[in-house]
Write a structure and sequence with these properties.
Elements lengths: L3 E4 L9 H16 L3 E6 L9 H13 L9 E2 L4 H13 L3 E4 L3 H13 L23 E4 L6 E6 L3 E6 L7 E3 L7 H11 L4 E5 L6 H11 L5 E5 L2 E2 L15 H6 L4 H10 L12 H7 L10 E2 L2 H14 L2 H12 L5 H14 L6 H7 L1 H4 L7 H9 L2 H13 L4 H15 L3 H13 L7 H8 L1 H11 L1
Parallel strand pairs: 1-2, 2-3, 9-10, 11-12
Antiparallel strand pairs: 4-5, 5-8, 6-7
The protein binds one RNA strand through helix 4, strand 7, helix 5, strand 12 and helix 10.
Length: 457
RNA sequence: GUCCCCAUCGUCUAGAGGCCUAGGACACCACCCUUUCACGGUGGAGACAGGGGUUCGACUCCCCUUGGGGAUGCCA
């Protein structure tokens, strides 16, 4: 049997980070098993679904390289088939028409709540045959009244759900449209889905769906209910927590590789491995290794991972990532400096926007001193430093040699290290907050470095 | 209220009855390195929610309590 998984977002909002993680797990599992990973847009909620959200969801999945293996299936296009299935159940006596109005049912629930009971449909039309003519009705599934509906959940283990807790739920609305329960079951079956991987907020829907599978004569797929992601305070992830949409993380300057790795480790692990690239993940990923407890978002760890991935990238690739944050055109020499300087900068900053800011020192072709730099220069012994500059001029332009020259100079003059290094940094890049002087000299290059130094000393 | 699910350091997690003096990672603290800021290195602090069982022996199995999450829609 070939494994088929699916991601089924409903276009009522942007792609939630939790949904993105579900997509990751679905795709990884399918690839691990040599199966297929499909996608379906659950747009049966006509009130809230929008085409714009569909676009947004696809863009986010695209960014993360989590696009389905085949073109998207739109649930709304299968309405005819859903209806046909409901009619079949009706004809077989496995479902029935209910003529109760929404108001009537609301009142029923109100009374149940007043009696401290679990609000549930009371089966008032289950056995009635005195159907009124020309009145709107919904179609409800005739569910099992007693016993348990059970399944072996791949992540949660064996679950027994008492049938007394499940009412005769609606499968076809009064306007003839299918509800979610009917639509998922029908579509998952029609798409050949073998493993339903989704958030554990669907555990309560599962027994209903199993009943539907059975009533329809369909094979029941395997289920894997993974815990939801919570915010840093342990509460449900919401907009209050900042980022909830996958794309928010792109906007904040995270690398997709880092986000994917982070999502992977949220609720799943393989021994002590932390940094796992996608290819390794395919080999290692098993649904059964997903944790049962919910995970809290920890932005610090994401930051760390981002830095790890940044350090692995080529200067060219890093430059491409930070370009959007630079908001300026680069001169040829600036680009050259950036390419040389980025590997050093990346040791200091984990996030793209911060890195871009740090890269500022290499962008300008002419130096502009900030306040601190001006102070360091004002305090400096310019005559002595001028001697250093001419020594540097005679030194082979290699980091180690330059460093040796500077250290030797410091030793023989007896000057304090910072009294040498700080003014040098100031002269070189306009701020004392910069990488090591010898690193700066290399990045900026011999000619330009000497120009800048001689301008001050 | 009722039902379902969950429960190891601050956070992500390892742990499938003796390997646990509970391991790793992020964050934190100290020291080292050092040219500011970082990187790196070494070390430190830090958890089995509580109570009952079962067992020669429980982080691991069972029950209860507590806490958290979810469901209880003609939403998905």
């Amino acid at each position: 049997m070939t494994v088929v998984t699916r991601i089924a977002p409903s276009p009522t909002g942007k792609l939630h980070i939790g949904t993105a993680r579900t997509a990751l797990f679905c795709k990884l599992f399918a690839q691990h098993m040599g199966g297929k990973y499909l996608g379906r847009i659950e747009d049966t909620d006509k009130e809230r679904s929008t085409e714009e959200n569909v676009q947004l969801i696809e863009q986010a999945l695209d960014w993360l390289d989590l696009q389905p293996d085949e073109p998207w299936v739109y649930q709304s296009k299968h309405e005819a088939r859903h209806k046909e299935l409901a009619e079949k159940l009706l004809a077989e006596g496995k479902a029935y028409k209910c003529f109760a109005t929404a108001e009537e049912l609301e009142q029923m629930r109100e009374e149940q709540r007043a009696r401290n009971e679990n609000p549930m449909y009371d089966n008032r039309w289950r056995e009635r045959t005195d159907h009124p003519e020309g009145t709107a009705y919904v179609v409800r599934l005739k569910t099992d009244l007693e016993g348990y509906t059970s399944w072996d959940d791949i992540v949660q283990g064996h679950i027994d759900y008492p049938n007394t807790q499940i009412d005769d739920f609606i499968i076809l609305r009064s306007d003839g449209s299918p509800t979610y329960q009917l639509a998922v079951v029908a579509d998952d079956h029609d798409m050949g889905v073998t493993h339903v991987v989704r958030g554990d907020d669907h555990i309560n829907n599962t027994p209903k769906q199993i009943m539907l599978y059975k009533a329809l004569g369909f094979d029941v797929p395997h289920f894997a209910h993974m815990p939801l992601i919570h915010g840093e305070d342990g509460k449900k992830l919401s907009k209050r927590h900042g980022a909830v949409a996958a794309m928010d993380f792109k906007d904040m300057g995270y690398l997709k590789e880092a986000l994917v790795n982070y999502m992977l480790r949220l609720g799943w692990s393989a021994g002590d491995l932390e940094k796992i690239n996608y290819e390794e993940a395919i080999k290692l990923f098993e649904l059964k290794d997903i944790t049962k407890s919910p995970a809290n978002m920890d932005i610090q760890k994401l930051n760390w991972l981002n830095g790890e991935y940044l350090k692995d990238m080529s200067p060219e690739a890093i430059l491409e990532e930070i370009m959007p944050y630079l908001n300026t055109d680069l001169s040829t020499s600036a680009k050259e400096r950036l390419l040389k300087g980025l590997p050093g900068l990346v040791q200091r900053e984990n996030l793209l926007p911060n890195l871009a800011k740090a890269a500022d020192i290499y962008i300008a072709d002419s130096i502009e001193l900030n306040e601190q730099a001006a102070q360091k220069l004002a305090d400096a012994d310019k005559d002595k430093l001028a001697e250093l500059v001419s020594k540097l001029e005679q030194t082979p332009w290699e980091e180690d040699d330059l460093s040796a020259t500077i250290k030797g100079f410091v030793k023989e003059t007896g000057l304090k290290m910072p009294m040498v290094m700080m003014p040098l940094r100031a002269a070189l890049v306009g701020t004392p907050q910069a990488p090591g002087v010898s690193e700066l000299l290399i990045v900026i290059g011999k000619d330009e470095s000497l120009n800048r130094l001689k301008a001050q000393f």
